C-alpha cells in the first residue's frame, strides 16, 4: 500500500511543480487560459504558492502522515476549485484534467490514511 502512496505522491507532486513552473513563466497558453477562466493575474502568485506547498506537503507526508493528509485535502479543494472555474465558463474539455487530479488527490487522502 505504501508503494501505491509513494507513486501517487510523486506523480501529483511532479505535475504540481511543472504547472507551477509554467504559471511562473507566464506562458502564453497559461495566461490565455487564466484570462478565459476569469482568474486575475494578481492571483497567480497565490496559485503558484499553493501548488508548491501542496507538492511539498504531499512529499513530507510520506514521512509524517498527518501533514500528508492535510496536503491532500488542500489539493482536493484546489483541484475541485479548478473544476468549478472551468465548468463556470463552459470549458468541459479543460475541466477533465482537473477532475482527474481531484480524484488523484482523493486517492492520496485514502492511501495516506490507510498507511498511518
From TrEMBL:
Keywords attached to this entry: Membrane, Transmembrane, Transmembrane helix
Positions of transmembrane segments: 44-64, 69-89, 95-114
Source organism, top-level taxon: Bacteria
Pfam families: DoxX_2 (PF13564)
InterPro entries: DoxX
Localization: Membrane
Keyword Transmembrane annotated: yes
Membrane topology: Multi-pass membrane protein
Protein's recorded name: Integral membrane protein
Source species of the chain: Streptomyces rishiriensis
Amino acid at each position: 500500500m505504501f508503494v501505491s502512496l509513494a507513486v501517487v505522491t510523486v506523480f501529483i507532486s511532479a505535475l504540481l511543480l511543472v504547472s507551477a513552473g509554467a504559471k511562473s513563466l507566464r506562458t502564453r497558453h497559461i495566461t490565455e487560459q487564466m484570462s478565459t477562466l476569469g482568474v486575475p493575474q494578481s492571483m497567480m502568485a497565490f496559485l503558484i504558492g499553493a501548488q508548491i506547498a501542496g507538492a511539498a506537503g504531499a512529499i513530507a507526508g510520506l514521512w509524517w502522515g498527518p501533514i500528508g493528509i492535510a496536503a491532500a485535502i488542500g489539493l482536493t479543494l484546489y483541484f475541485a476549485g479548478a473544476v468549478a472555474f472551468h465548468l463556470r465558463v463552459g470549458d468541459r474539455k479543460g475541466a477533465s484534467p482537473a477532475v482527474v487530479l481531484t480524484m488523484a488527490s482523493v486517492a492520496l487522502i485514502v492511501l495516506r490514511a490507510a498507511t498511518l
